[in-house]
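Sequence, please.
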C-alpha cells in the first residue's frame, strides 16, 4: 500500500517519527514536497533512504491531486504540516480515502474563522477582528479594541509574528511591521486571554478519541510568546479537559492527531489555537517514549482506515520536561554542546542541537530562535526537573555578534 506524505521543509516529526513508522508498517512511501533538495540532505536524507521524493506545489490541492493521479494509486494521503492539512484532506476525499474533513482543517487553520465558528456555535466568544492584506491598519483605531490585545497572522505558526500590544499606536505600528514582513498575509487582532498556558494532545479515528495528556507551557516575557519550557501533564483537571473537548467537538475535530493550545483562568478554559496535527518541537517524540505506545503508527493507521483500539495501553506514571535554550541576540553561534543522551538516577535525558556551531542567524522572536532541545523523562518530576537544571548549568551556548 502506498502512502503519500505531504511536506514542506523537513521536521523531526516526519524524519524521526512518521517515516520510520511508515517503514515499520511496510508501506511504500512517496514524499510530495516543494522543497525536495532540503529533504535530500542531512538527517532527512537518511530517513528517506529507499523512499520516493517527488517535487510538487503541495500548497495547491489541485497540484497534489494531479501529481498523485499521474503516479501510483494511493492508499493514504497524510501530512503533519500546519500549512497543508486542508490540501491533504481535499486530496484524500478526492480519492475516496480516510482523512480529515477539509472544512474542519480549514476552520482550525484559519484563526479568524475558528473564532467566528466558536462564537456562532455558542462554544466561546472572543473579541477579534480581521485585517486583510490590503487593509490599512489605521482602520483598526475606529474599533472598540480591548487592550492589551494580541496581533497574529491569520494562518501563522510557531508564534511567528505573534505579539502583545498595549495601545492604539502600538497596534498600528505592529501591524504595519508584520505586513511589511508578510506581504499578502491577513492578520487577526483579538483580546488577550490571560491564564496558565497549556496544551491538550488528542488522537481520534472519528469513532473514539483518546486524550494523551498535555503540557504546561512557559513562554518568554512580553511582547512575544516563545514557548521556552514544556512540562508534561498526564491529565488536566477533568472539568478543564471537558471544556476543551466540547470546543473541539464544536469545531468538528475528531480524526487523527490534534495539538490544542489553551489558557485556564479561574477554572475556565479558552482556546488559543488548534493545530490539527501532532505536537512538534520534539514533544511528539517524547510523548511516544513517555507513554510507551507506537504513537506515530497509530496516527498513520487512522489514515489507512484502521480503527484505534479502545485502550491504547499507555503508561500513566511518566513525567517529563522539555527546555529550549534560546538565542537572545542576533549573531553567529560560536559555542554549544553536542548531541548527547544519558540515563542516570531514573531519568533519561536527551539533548539535540537545532543550530550548528558556525551558523549565523538574526533574532526572530519566535521558535526559530531555539538553539537546541533538552528533553528528560522519568517517573519523578522533581528528579526530571533537577536533571534538566543540571544539564543547563553545566553547558553554555555562546553567540558572537
Amino acid at each position: 500500500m502506498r502512502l503519500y506524505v505531504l511536506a514542506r521543509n523537513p521536521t523531526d516529526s516526519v524524519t524521526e517519527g512518521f517515516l520510520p513508522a511508515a517503514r515499520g508498517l511496510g508501506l511504500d512511501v512517496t514524499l510530495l514536497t516543494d522543497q525536495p533538495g532540503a529533504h535530500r540532505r542531512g538527517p532527512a536524507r537518511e530517513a528517506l533512504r529507499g523512499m520516493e521524493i517527488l517535487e510538487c506545489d503541495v500548497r495547491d490541492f489541485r497540484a497534489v491531486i494531479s501529481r498523485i493521479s499521474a503516479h501510483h494509486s494511493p492508499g493514504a494521503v497524510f501530512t503533519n504540516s500546519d500549512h497543508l492539512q486542508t490540501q491533504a484532506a481535499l486530496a484524500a476525499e478526492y480519492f475516496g480515502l480516510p482523512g480529515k474533513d477539509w472544512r474542519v482543517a480549514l476552520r482550525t487553520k484559519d484563526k479568524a474563522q475558528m473564532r467566528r465558528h466558536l462564537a456562532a456555535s455558542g462554544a466561546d466568544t472572543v473579541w477579534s477582528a480581521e485585517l486583510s492584506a490590503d487593509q490599512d491598519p489605521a482602520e483598526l483605531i475606529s474599533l472598540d479594541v480591548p487592550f492589551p490585545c494580541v496581533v497574529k497572522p491569520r494562518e501563522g505558526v510557531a508564534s511567528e509574528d505573534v505579539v502583545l500590544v498595549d495601545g492604539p499606536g502600538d497596534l498600528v505600528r505592529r501591524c504595519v511591521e508584520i505586513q511589511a514582513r508578510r506581504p499578502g498575509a491577513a492578520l487577526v487582532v483579538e483580546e488577550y486571554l490571560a491564564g496558565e498556558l497549556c496544551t491538550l494532545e488528542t488522537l481520534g479515528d472519528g469513532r473514539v478519541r483518546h486524550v494523551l495528556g498535555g503540557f504546561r507551557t512557559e513562554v518568554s516575557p512580553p511582547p512575544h510568546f516563545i514557548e521556552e519550557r514544556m512540562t508534561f501533564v498526564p491529565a488536566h483537571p477533568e472539568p478543564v479537559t471537558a471544556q476543551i473537548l466540547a470546543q473541539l467537538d464544536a469545531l468538528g475535530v475528531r480524526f487523527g492527531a490534534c495539538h490544542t493550545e489553551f489558557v485556564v483562568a479561574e477554572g475556565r478554559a479558552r482556546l488559543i489555537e488548534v493545530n490539527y496535527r501532532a505536537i512538534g518541537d520534539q514533544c511528539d517524540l517524547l510523548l511516544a517514549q513517555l507513554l510507551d505506545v507506537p504513537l506515530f503508527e497509530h496516527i498513520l493507521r487512522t489514515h489507512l482506515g484502521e480503527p484505534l483500539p479502545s485502550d491504547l495501553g499507555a503508561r500513566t506514571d511518566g513525567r517529563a520536561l522539555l527546555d529550549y535554550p534560546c538565542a537572545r541576540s542576533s549573531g553567529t553561534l560560536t559555542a554549544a554542546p553536542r548531541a548527547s543522551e544519558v540515563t542516570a538516577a531514573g531519568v533519561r535525558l536527551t539533548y539535540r542541537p537545532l543550530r550548528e556551531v558556525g551558523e549565523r542567524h538574526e533574532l526572530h522572536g519566535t521558535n526559530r530562535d531555539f538553539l537546541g532541545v533538552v528533553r528528560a523523562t522519568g517517573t519523578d518530576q522533581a528528579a526530571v526537573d533537577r536533571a534538566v537544571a543540571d544539564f543547563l548549568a553545566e553547558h553554555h551556548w555562546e553567540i558572537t555578534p
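The longest strand covers residues 209-219.
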